[in-house]
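Blackboard transcription, Thursday session:
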Amino acid sequence: MAHAAHEDARPTLHMGLPLPHGKLAMWLFLVTEIMFFTALIGTYIILRNGTPTAAEPWPKPHEVHLVEALGAINTFVLICSSVTVVLAHWTIARGKIGATMGLIAATLALGIVFLGIKAVEYKAKWDHDILPGHIGERLEGPTGQQYVKRIRPQLQHIVDEHHGVTDAALADCKQLLSDMTDAEGRYAIIAPEVGRRVEEILHRHDEAQNPGLHLTPAIPYGNLWASCYFALTGFHALHVLGGLVVFVIILLMGLTGRLAVRHEAMLEYTGLYWHFVDIVWIFLFPFLYLI
Amino acid sequence: MSEAHADAHHGPNVRGYLIVFAALSVFTVVSFVINDFVRGDKMSAMSGMLIILAVAVVKAVLVGAYFMHLKYDWGRVFFMIVPAFILATMMIFVLLPDIVLAWK
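(Written on the board underneath:)
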């Protein structure tokens, strides 16, 4: 070994680094992505651990209608798509273009399934009004009146429509609505009490039997949670969408007969990006859904 | 081009990829089950968190090493990844005082 090193001591000319330019470019791009997601996740860790107290802890997944099983299924979907994309690279290197096309199509389908499940989850947040700036908190302050103003028409709507709510839930909503206003039409109970009663109603009645029970919840740090959730999963979903565009391009190349063994590197670099997106989700899943 | 081509034949075979896939699937189930234990008070939140985080790190290493070919390419790309990890760790650490100093 020492002998070999001595022989190599004479400088030899190397043009650039011992790796293809494409791979170098993709890895440089991925390390900027590492910093991007570290900043997002780091900020989330600070916000989550910095301010909440024992009396007002960070929202639990069930409080903000986050279903752990959906997150786990999406983790599995992305893992499957990582396998299909790595096999697509393996097959194109061996000239099996047809198999590559099938695997890329499968990857595209899995990516769409991931975004579909994400859309179902976002829809649930929308339905339950778990959106940044909407959730009731610090109700003893000025936001309390805003919260009451938001809740009153929601209760009125439930009472008027009587659609998708059980009789028991409807009775509770009627009771709260009448308790909220005195004979002269003024607010009869203070905002923190309204928030407490709304949470009571939401917890007492089964969600599945009451799809029409749309009341803005009052959750301490709910707005901060929603901001973190949408920022982290939103940026990740945009990355998934970006990957899907590339898969569509590869499929179009294949369908027009232009995909060939010489595109092996392109598939490898696309795979590198896709696996990175998978790794980000591997961390987002426990951070948002589990821990 | 020739180098990229050579890589493909150094990498793991289909069997290797499927073993990694099985391991990743099992680890996903493990973190989900551990989470259920914590929710059901069968395990402390701290030990649950440590296991779940460790599982996530192992999964990320598996994806990086095998699917991203780092097991074979590490010697040629580490000079980009290592500084990014050092800077990422430093960024988390300089943010940490905000937790400690937060008004309780």
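Lecturer's comment: Helices of chain B lie at 2-10, 14-39, 45-67, 70-95, 97-100.
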